[in-house]
């Protein structure tokens, strides 16, 4: 009796890690926006350009690449926050070009609050990931809630505090992204990310 040998093909993923691109797109744009929130300079086209292209499009690209790698968390996070940046730019630009009325404080409180809720739930997912991501998502949830509070009570003091906290959040994201690049380039842990306990 003739036997037929089954052949097994194993596909090895040789694509690059998209997480650094997403983290840097998020982190660098977050730092620049929150320097504005902290009162260092006015809102201008530099922030809008970063929000649209690096904070927005770069993160969406990273999210699509995470999908290719089968990473649901990365796909959801990068795509969602990329679209957050694009929606934020739209909220600022649309009224200026006559495409609707500017969002008031109540609407912005709801907008920032729902992003805070989303981020808080995503933070729970980071508890199975590294410490760097836990810090990024933890500080980001706090940032969204502070910004929502600032709009809810119309407090520039709260918004300034949020700006300072947001700078920290953005710098943490930049560290998490650059650490992955350096660790891969050197083939060892140059910048620790802090492995979560399983």
Q: What are the secondary-structure elements, in order, as H or E?
A: HHHHHH
Number of separate structural domains:
1
Helix content: over 70%
Average the pLDDT over all residues and give the rounded result. Answer: 94
Computed CA radius of gyration, to the nearest angstrom = 20 Å
Count of helix runs: 6
> Could you tell me how far the N terminus lies from the C terminus, measured between alpha carbons in angstroms?
49 Å
Number of strands: 0
**What is the approximate shape?**
globular
* Approximate strand percentage: under 5%
Structural commentary:
With 198 residues, this protein is mainly α. The chain has one domain. Helix content is 72%, strand content 0%. The chain has helices at residues 19-37, 45-68, 72-96, 105-126, 131-152, 156-186. The protein is globular. The model has no long low-confidence stretch (mean pLDDT 94).
Task: List the main descriptive attributes of the protein structure presented here.
198 residues, mainly alpha, 72% helix, 0% strand, globular
What's the layout of helices and strands?
Blueprint: H1 19-37, H2 45-68, H3 72-96, H4 105-126, H5 131-152, H6 156-186
Give a quick precis of the structure:
The protein has 198 residues and is mainly alpha-helical. The chain contains 6 helices and no strands.
